[in-house]
Design a protein that fits this description.
With 447 residues, this protein is an alpha+beta fold. Helix content is 40%, strand content 18%. The chain folds into three domains: 214 residues, Rossmann fold; 77 residues, no CATH class; 114 residues, Phenylalanyl-trna Synthetase, Chain B, domain 3 (Phenylalanyl-tRNA Synthetase, Chain B, domain 3). It has a six-stranded mixed β-sheet, sandwiched between helices. Strands 10-13-16-17-18 form a five-stranded antiparallel β-sheet, with no helix packed on it. Strands 7-8-9 form a three-stranded antiparallel β-sheet. Helix 2 links the parallel strand 1 and strand 2. The longest helix has 28 residues. The radius of gyration is 25 Å and the shape is globular. The mean pLDDT is 88.
């Protein structure tokens, strides 16, 4: 039976917040939306239902979109459609599942950072926790990975809420029927056991629970216990990382860190030093442990998925070293005298009706005569046009789906402040206004 009081207690901390709700049209997300609408007035919540149209199920996918849009329109619920086009945006070697997950994550990161007191709310329930546990076991995850679905998580500065983790699917469907809703969307691909999660859901778990009925509740109880253990280890790692100097520490310092904490400390340092949510895999940790234990050979260890950065020993300390591709030699540009590094300057009389990503317009009199052209480095921030607070450049870049190695160079003031990131964002520096006497248009073209 659904515990509405428990869900209300979980969400009470987020009174007055803006909540973006993942809404596929299935029973789980539909029940979540109905529940949040019931709590909306008491908690003064600002709700928006977000439907991600993945683009690979043809007419069925469009029918899901229409159902969600109509449901929200009939009840006055703000609705947002996000078109992902998964087949066209799939990376080499990436499965449909992985590509869809990555693209949805990009949507949540963009929406979740729009303003303060904003969260993403997802409809994962007890069944999803069990499936996720088995998937992570098969991949060799540690205790933090095994209980990765948690009621509250903060990833990349975005808050994710999952208030239904102790609810069973049958209870969510009963909640809908109790509210007079007897129709919801069913994804036909959920029956395809070629997908690993579907195999676990359709084949593995039913046979397990048939032989051991107590396992259904036992898995959830184990997950609750694992989460307590994981939080203890994560807090211990955070204390160690917080006391470490930038980049890490000497070999002796790392030898003193318990193996159970070492990977977690590395992840926190990578987040701090490289601005990336990198996770050390088993082969990385084995190689690092071997070097700490044996004292050699000491070699640089590449960081998978961290844009070419490595972990290596420099000046007696272990440090993260960014990829050379991310830190090209800076170049000074006297922009009134001619082009440089793919950049050129023009002087139009007025702004065009439409501004493309490869051009940027500034008040020429408010810029220094010499600008700096360089690549992005960890920690870069800029204040986008129309905003007052800085945003991490990596966030702006990943929102556009541009890998670090493919990003154009940045245009900066001599002190390093970013004024333009071609194809990504224009800054709020030296804007063109009615008082502007001379407009400069910077253009960028790949050399």
């Amino acid at each position: 039976m659904l515990d509405m009081a428990d869900i209300g207690r979980q969400l009470a901390e987020y009174r007055t917040w803006t909540l973006y709700i993942g809404f596929s049209g299935g029973a789980d997300s539909l029940a979540l939306l109905v529940i949040l609408c019931k709590l909306q007035k008491d908690l003064d919540l600002r709700l928006t239902a977000v439907h991600c149209e993945h683009g690979f199920r043809g007419a069925d996918s469009l029918a899901d979109l229409a159902f969600c849009r109509d449901f929200c329109r009939e009840r006055g619920i703000p609705f947002l459609q996000e078109t992902l086009e998964v087949p066209a945006n799939r990376l080499p070697g990436e499965t449909d599942e992985a590509a869809a997950r990555r693209l949805r994550q990009m949507v949540w990161q963009r929406l979740g950072r729009k303003k303060e007191k904003t969260a993403i709310v997802l409809a994962h329930h007890a069944g999803d926790r069990r499936e996720n546990l088995l998937l992570r076991l098969a991949r060799g995850s540690n205790v933090s990975g095994l209980c990765g679905l948690r009621a509250v998580r903060k990833i990349g500065g975005v808050t994710y809420l999952r208030p239904l983790l102790h609810a069973e699917k049958k209870d969510l469907e009963a909640c809908l029927r109790g509210n007079g809703i007897n129709c919801w969307r069913t994804d036909g691909s959920n029956a395809d056991i070629r997908y690993r999660r579907n195999f676990i859901r359709q084949e593995l778990l039913p046979r397990w629970f048939g032989a051991m009925p107590y396992a259904e509740g036992g898995l959830v109880a184990s997950l609750d216990a694992l989460e307590v253990d994981a939080e203890y280890l994560e807090e211990a790692a955070a204390r160690i990382a917080g006391n470490m100097a930038p980049g890490g520490g000497k070999t002796g310092v790392w030898r003193e860190i318990a193996p159970a904490l070492r990977g977690r400390v590395l992840r926190l340092l990578a987040r701090r030093e490289l601005d990336t949510d990198w996770i050390a895999d088993r082969s990385f940790l084995r190689a690092f442990d071997r070097m700490l234990r044996d004292g050699g050979p000491l070699t640089d260890l590449p960081l998978a998925g961290a844009d070419g950065a490595v972990w290596g020993l420099r000046h007696g300390c272990w440090n993260f070293i960014p990829s050379p591709a991310e830190t090209p030699v800076p170049q000074l540009w006297a922009w009134r005298k001619g082009p440089a590094a793919g950049f050129s300057a023009g002087f139009p009389k007025t702004l065009p009706e439409k501004i493309t990503g490869d051009t940027a317009f500034f008040d020429a009199e408010k810029l220094p005569e010499i600008l700096l052209i360089s690549g992005g480095v960890p920690g870069d921030r800029m204040i986008p046009f129309g905003r007052r607070t800085p945003v991490r450049w990596k966030v702006l870049r990943t929102d556009r789906g541009i890998p670090a190695g493919a990003a154009p160079p940045l245009l900066r003031l001599p002190g390093g402040k970013i004024i333009w990131s071609p194809l990504i964002r224009h800054s709020n520096t030296a804007p063109v206004t009615e008082a502007t006497k001379e407009i400069v248009c910077f253009s960028w073209q790949k050399e």
